[in-house]
Queue: 2 jobs
Job 1
Amino acid sequence: MNTQDFIKIEEQYGAHNYHPLDVVIEKAEGVWVYDVEGKKYLDCLSAYSAVNQGHVHPEILKALIGQAGKVTLTSRAFRNDQLPMLYKELSEMTGYEMSLPMNSGAEAVETAVKLARKWAYQVKKVPRHQAEIIVAGNNFHGRTVTIVSFSTEPLYRDDFGPFTPGFVVVEYGNVEAVEKAITPNTAAVMLEPIQGEAGVIVPPAGYLKAVEALCKKNNVLLIADEIQTGLGRTGKLFAAHHDDVRADITVVGKALAGGFYPVSAILADKSVLGLFQAGEHGSTFGGNPLAAAIARASLKVIRDEKLSERSATLGEYFIEQLSEIPSPHVKEVRGKGLLIGVELKSDAGGARRFCEALKGKGILAKETHDNVIRFAPPLVIDKETIDWALPAIRETLNMP
Ligand SMILES: *Cc1c(COP(=O)(O)O)cnc(C)c1O
């Protein structure tokens, strides 16, 4: 079967909720993926930053295989010997006292929302069912009904109401807007330190720090959704660290399992995360021993291979090189570490055609919204590979 055969079957039998590039990948290693025709591509998406450690990292693979042959699922009705170690290692690495594991990122965001509401009623004494959570315009926090309830993207939201109440949307990057939105019933402010899906939107310097101060002053929790920006992607363990911010709740997912498995978690101190009582929240698969073993290995790779530092150095280089490309189409190059957005001018004909052209040159990047090309390769990439990619990117950005 060739590429077109696979695509035809996929389109016939699968729901059309994605618009993928027409490349059918059959294997991958490090920063490279290979399609069914044997063509090799540089992966500049990293599965939306889930494979920061590179594809099929041998150490994570070893942990998966080792654990899969022992025990994969106990449910939380019983204990297992991997989850305690994941808790401890997450705490040592992130500085949070506790964590709570889930599977997808959206579930972890839901967990953070539930915890913030619980904290509001139990600690802040907000009248029951009156808690409000402030979020930012153009946010992306996942796809559940509650989460799309506070999306500002019509495509994510319009056909899926009725919506969950209790959310207030303010302009991203605007501290005053947050200040104005805070009421005695505000439980939390939830933000992405950099908005990935919105097109790699980097807020003004000091924004997060000012929001953190507002939260402290008003007895409001700060929730940082670091599912995409966390675990080294932007050149620090968490993107909030660029602003010297420590959120009350940090949400992680994606690279927490190096692309092998869906593992997410929320991180917080005991004064907040200690509020959940037995039975109030849970997940059959959350914290299973296979997930925990994979997450432990994935964190170890981030630490041992100094992926945050790598991302900082190589990201700076990549952004600088991209900024120097003369192109009639580019409006702006922005980002932090290896989370990079190239925004095209509105008359460039859309980012999609540039992504198609890059594919032809052996580079897989994906448009985000209409006019931004995201470059976010696995953090194990090296300078030589970036240098290999730059001429192809230069050529593409100079297409007619
Ligand atoms: C990907 C993402 C999510 C959702 O994660 P899923 O695993 O797809 O549910 C939430 N927040 C941010 C910032 C993300 O990038």
Job 2
Amino acid sequence: MSDTKIYLPESDIPRHWYNVIPDMPTPPQPYLGPDGKPITGAAMEAIFPPAIIEQETSSERWIPIPEPVREALTLWRPSPLIRARRLEQALNTPAKIYFKYEGVSPAGSHKPNSAVAQAYYNAEAGIKRLTTETGAGQWGSSLALAGQMFGLDVRIYMVRISYEQKPYRRSMMETWGGEVIPSPSNHTQAGRDALAQDPDSNGSLGMAISEAVEEAASRGDTNYALGSVLNHVLLHQTVIGLEAKRQMEIAGDYPDVVFAPCGGGSNVGGIMFPFLADKAAGRDLRLVAVEPASCPTLTRGHFAYDYGDSVGLTPMMKMYTLGHDFMPPGIHAGGLRYHGDSALVSQLYHDGVLEARSVHQTATFQAGVLFARTQGIIPAPESAHAIRAAVDEAVQAREEGRERTILFTLSGHGHFDMSAYDRYFAGELEDMDYPTEALETAKANLPKVEG
Ligand SMILES: *Cc1c(COP(=O)(O)O)cnc(C)c1O
């Protein structure tokens, strides 16, 4: 066995991010303000630095990565591309399975790729503090790390149920100097209103976003940072796909199909957009986002304008959505429990360039355990969604007696998710489909806009 791991030298960390917008068949719809009109860059200046606002709407295909950001990325990049030979053997499949492993970052997922860029641009603009939200804690820990690297204070509104259930993610954020506040909290109007309604509220990602945005908008020294969904976040994540393309080339292979778990769409965009440029140029390949059946944003949501948070403080985005008042069922892949999705991923899915499928919770853990027992790495429950899809594809290749090259992102490791594995082993995890009535209610509550 040779060439199981393909490492690149540091000099191969990309020097540019790839912006997919010029290669989209339909450009993304503009973000809308409360008056239903497209928002201007100036309206975003209360919470974002100029460089980020520019990236959000740029039509440049290649955007240079500033040297201090590239230097920060060298702490863990380039990440390895690994051929999952032991998984292939266990499945007795003729398919070749490759994965790009993002769990090598200090926070254990792909999220620091954007966190360091966002911290850099904010520090450069003279900002002293960042606010953000976190669900399971992966984004919060990534931003705490990045804030520390670029000299910014970071306040993290953490969904209360996760704050209580995932004490070690909180310790991690505090170790990197972050301040962690359970949400809903008394620090903001949005939080106080939520607590007045329900003092025992578990919180939600949408609520934590409302709190973080409200605070950032009300203070001149403070900006807001988001870990997924927005165009600039997906842009920063394209280092994943750019490296992976180079690594596949070294392996002498090219994927027939690429899978990634999909929450807000940042690791989907990260690995898939650089390949999408080839697809746009006529190459035959499938790009498939994988989401939970209990939070089926792309596969069952509405393609409509909606808010990014629960209170309606963010601009409206044209995206697939389960409704901004979505209350997530308690599944364990916390990072995939968001009501909306990236506008770029949504538009590309709507246009048939990207595909999507949903998988059930127990099937993802089953695939995650198989992966841990063959390849050794214990995957994050989010990442196990992509593993499930890759395993199904490899089994299909065996049944059809056909070769196939499969690539997926292993977006993170699961070392902070072991209680979820415990519950899986104890047979306590349930498979839930998102109720159709809830989809109908969500539709009725969407903001009314033309378009
Ligand atoms: C946050 C997270 C995801 C989902 O977020 P995307 O923006 O859709 O990538 C997936 N995997 C891991 C490990 C995460 O931390």
